[in-house]
């Protein structure tokens, strides 16, 4: 049943120009960042280049993609649930013998398809350099995994906020606030002058930084999966509560 | 005969505001039940509860003995629901949409093609299978909405204001469709239009401000729909009017006036012709308000509007 819903949602995303325009615009932007980094490092000797160039490319290229994902994922998630309410198709799904969790997972799969395609774009650009320059493939694969996991988290938060409020724009704004707070939460320990490792653990940017540095730790991967599952479970609860009123 | 649907003391509140108070009724297979009430009477809330898209604050709904709250998926597999606004994806073609609706109801792929052909023929959608839903007229969109509710041959079909936005020809076709659905299933429809309920339903429940005020068997009232009131000059002689071919019964009602029940096959214009042929001048001829109409207005506290 999850796949039935995912197929319908995927058709809605890819049959309209929306996803294609997003991918094209992202590719254009990333190509510009990519060329800018290459420009800076032209003519530098290979040993020096290996350290500085790979790190700069990872930081700038993947950083830009992350910002785009942060911007797009909540919008797409809010649109996905909001459109059902707007069209009245939530009544079709609600009266069918389908679990709310299946509806949410179907929508999540359909959201992840364009977002993960978008997360792969920097890797495609980096692939152009293989053979021509010393590329740290491990670093870029870990960073790509980081982008994919971030997309999962952002989409889950977007689905949660879309289940909380009816207006898609408001839902997207709420998701941005929640994600930015969740990113900056580790700064709270500095304010309190205490070592609160829990706040560090809660911050997604603290986990992502490891992946962007080429280190794929199980604890970081677990963080993204667990937090996404938590937000999806809350969204499921919220949608079920809406039926109870 | 065992009950297809049992609605037991359903109550619903939104916050502190009660919108449905103790709704209680049953439905058998083959029956068409109408929920009649003015806008805001609680009809849509009641139908949403019956379709499982809204939970009741108290009470329970049993569909073929299955509790909607306890086993929602088993119960929902046996119902088809057309909400107030047809739940359509404008970017989907009619065939794609019906296939999606069938898959949502867990229909095996092998049965889908046949089921789609059946509902398209039933709802007059055969020649628009490849058209986008968003490009269809309101009437065809409503048909597609009804078709999705029928694709899995449910035991219970719930239609919320199905005639809304349809032209008279489409409304007539809809009545025929409802009759054909009721051959194998139970149907519940809501409407704020008296004539619609009278034309399609075998039983009616009148709702007002969330309360169930009246329940009636419309088959018993069908005869009353053939009543007309006439005022004649010279003053009518009852025996001579009773002898006219279109007249089944007649009784005086006020000065120079008679209440006449027409024979089943007779029409008001045949009566008018017949009266004039027998030397009566026709001062007035109007349909009598049926009992249902009287009950409806009396239920909603508008007797004076008669």
TrEMBL record, chain B:
Keywords: ATP-binding, Nucleotide-binding, Transport. GO terms for molecular function: ATP binding; ATP hydrolysis activity. Residues 5-234 form the ABC transporter domain. It comes from the Bacteria. PROSITE patterns: ABC_TRANSPORTER_2. InterPro entries: AAA+_ATPase (IPR003593), ABC_transporter-like_ATP-bd (IPR003439), P-loop_NTPase (IPR027417). Signal peptide: none annotated. Belongs to the ABC transporter superfamily. PANTHER family: ABC TRANSPORTER, ATP-BINDING PROTEIN. This is ABC transporter domain-containing protein.
């Amino acid at each position: 049943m999850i796949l039935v819903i995912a197929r319908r949602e995927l058709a809605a995303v890819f049959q309209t120009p929306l996803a294609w325009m997003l991918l094209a615009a992202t590719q254009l932007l990333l190509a510009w960042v990519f060329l800018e980094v290459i420009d800076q490092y032209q003519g530098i000797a290979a040993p020096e280049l290996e350290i500085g160039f790979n790190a700069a490319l990872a930081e700038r290229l993947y950083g830009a993609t992350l910002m785009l994902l942060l911007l797009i994922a909540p919008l797409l998630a809010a649109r996905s649930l909001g459109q059902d309410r707007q069209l009245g198709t939530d009544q079709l799904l609600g009266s069918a013998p389908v679990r709310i969790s299946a509806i949410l997972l179907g929508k999540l799969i359909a959201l992840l398809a364009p977002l993960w395609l978008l997360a792969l774009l920097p890797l495609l650009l980096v692939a152009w350099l293989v053979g021509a320059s010393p590329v740290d493939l491990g670093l870029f694969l870990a960073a790509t995994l980081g982008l994919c996991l971030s997309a999962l988290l952002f989409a889950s938060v977007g689905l949660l906020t879309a289940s909380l409020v009816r207006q898609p724009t408001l839902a997207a704004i709420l998701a941005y606030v929640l994600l930015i707070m969740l990113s900056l939460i580790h700064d709270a320990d500095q304010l309190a002058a205490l070592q609160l490792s829990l706040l560090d653990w809660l911050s997604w940017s603290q986990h992502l930084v490891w992946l962007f540095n080429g280190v794929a730790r199980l604890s970081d991967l677990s963080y993204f999966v667990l937090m996404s599952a938590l937000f999806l479970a809350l969204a499921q609860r919220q949608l079920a509560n809406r039926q109870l009123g | 005969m065992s009950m297809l649907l049992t609605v037991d003391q359903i109550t619903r509140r939104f916050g502190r505001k009660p919108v449905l108070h103790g709704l209680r009724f049953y439905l058998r297979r083959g029956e068409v039940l109408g929920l009649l009430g003015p806008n805001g009477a609680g009809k849509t809330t009641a139908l949403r509860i019956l379709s499982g898209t809204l939970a009741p604050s108290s009470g329970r709904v049993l569909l073929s003995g299955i509790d909607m709250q306890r086993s929602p998926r088993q119960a929902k597999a046996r119902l088809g629901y057309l909400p107030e606004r047809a739940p359509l994806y404008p970017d989907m073609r009619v065939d794609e949409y019906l296939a999606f609706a069938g898959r949502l109801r867990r229909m095996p792929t092998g049965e889908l093609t046949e089921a789609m052909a059946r509902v398209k023929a039933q709802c007059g959608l055969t020649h628009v299978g490849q058209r986008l839903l968003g490009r269809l007229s309101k009437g065809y969109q409503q048909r597609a909405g009804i078709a999705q509710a029928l694709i899995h041959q449910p035991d219970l079909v719930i239609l919320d204001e199905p005639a809304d936005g349809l032209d008279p020809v489409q409304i007539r076709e809809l009545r025929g469709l409802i009759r054909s659905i009721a051959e194998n299933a139970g149907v519940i429809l809501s409407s704020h239009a008296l004539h619609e309920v009278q034309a399609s339903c075998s039983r009616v429940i009148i709702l007002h401000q969330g309360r169930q005020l009246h329940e009636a068997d419309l088959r018993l009232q069908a005869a009353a729909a053939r009543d007309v009131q006439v005022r004649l000059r010279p003053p009518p002689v009852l025996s001579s009017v009773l002898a006219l071919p279109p007249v089944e019964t007649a009784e005086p009602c006020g000065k120079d006036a008679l209440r006449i029940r027409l024979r089943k096959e007779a029409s008001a214009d045949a009566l008018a012709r017949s009266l004039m042929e027998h030397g009566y001048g026709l001062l007035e001829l109007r349909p009598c308000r049926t009992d249902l109409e009287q009950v409806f207005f009396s239920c909603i506290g508008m007797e004076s509007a008669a």
